[in-house]
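Researcher: Here's a chain I'd like modeled. Treat it as a single chain, no partners, no ligands.
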Amino acid sequence: MSEDIVRIFDTTLRDGEQAPGCSMTVEEKRQVARQLARLGVDVIEAGFPAASPGDWDAVRAIAEDAYDWPVAPTICGLARATRKDIEAAATALAGAPARRIHTFLATSDVHLQYKLQMTRAAVITRVHEMVGYAASFIDDVEFSPEDASRSDAGFLHDVLRAAIDAGATTINIPDTVGYTTPDEYFALIAGIRQQVVGDRDVVISTHCHDDLGLAVANSLAGVQAGARQVECTINGIGERAGNAALEEVVMALRTRRARYAADTHVRTEEIGRASRLVSRCTGVRVPPNKAIVGANAFAHEAGIHQDGMLKHRETYEIMHAEHVGLEGGRLVLGKHSGRAALRAHLATLGHALADAECDAVFAKFKEVADRKKVVDDRELEAIVAGETKRGSATFTLELVQVSCGTHAIPTATVKLRGPDERELVAAAQGDGPVDAVCLLYTSPSPRD
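Model: Modeled as a single isolated chain. Structure tokens:
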């Protein structure tokens, strides 16, 4: 079976930025765009130029920046099906080495009746005129029938034919409100491929939202049905529940090549960096359990899983974290961890324990782990020292006292008791009580 290339159309800077709290400055957008170019996406939807002067400036800046990138994706601007929007997109994109205008108009009855107040015939006429107008500026034109998944199939096909006849080279089929299921979306794309596109040189694209948690599944169903472009965002950010997550779509295609017979141009080792950059620029934290880029995506705590990982990574990992630019195979030591994982980790800390010593340390470790979520290396060192009498002499913290206030100098006093029962007391002043305690650690002055 031959392998096709699926274009990745990244809309982080347009649809992703529309998510509440995800707006970015022009400079932040430029940083993200540069990283998307390094990532190897095919198209960057840089913004909605007619939405605001700031958006127009961002699209123009990214379009001009693209000349300096080693490999420049196509830079795209969104436009409603109006002359003013299309002109704004065309002027903002003028400096790009490769550019695309993406215009859209809704086709579902609920949108026609309540939002647009247009007849079906008027919609077909508008689409033909405005796609043609966009094509008079740029050869690469994409058309989206908004809310396509809730539109009448026959009318949708008529609208798409009008768009293609007017010069659209990509037709995007949005599941705008995340309503469709994978089997329905497969049928929708397959029907368009057979009854509208046929043998014409037109790319079918997917654009799926995650309101029911099906955005990635629907996008992949679209690929199986013949779509060869997927619209997605880094970390899955976007309107309401978000868009199909780029990292999930790309790694699903890469990991399940035999299933989809398709791959992308994405350099997957840049995914982790892209995820962290978008999170930093938007201020939206990536959930720990997020597929591919979450902190726990390649972490293992359960003892059975850890034992399998120590023996062979593929027992519990279907991909390697290094392939997406992250650190992987991390064994988290918590109350579910087993003896094998603890012993292996202690070996990395330089502790080769006899069986009896390991039993004692493991029992104490379990006792501590039951009280805490994660046991870190400092606590492990203390457990080993206490249970095996290895390492340096231990000290007991007897007292910590801090003094601070509006008219007081922050001061900290600490008293330790050594193994020979000798008391060590020290005091320090700092910018605040925590700083004072830290100064005791960095420059202690113990006294009897």
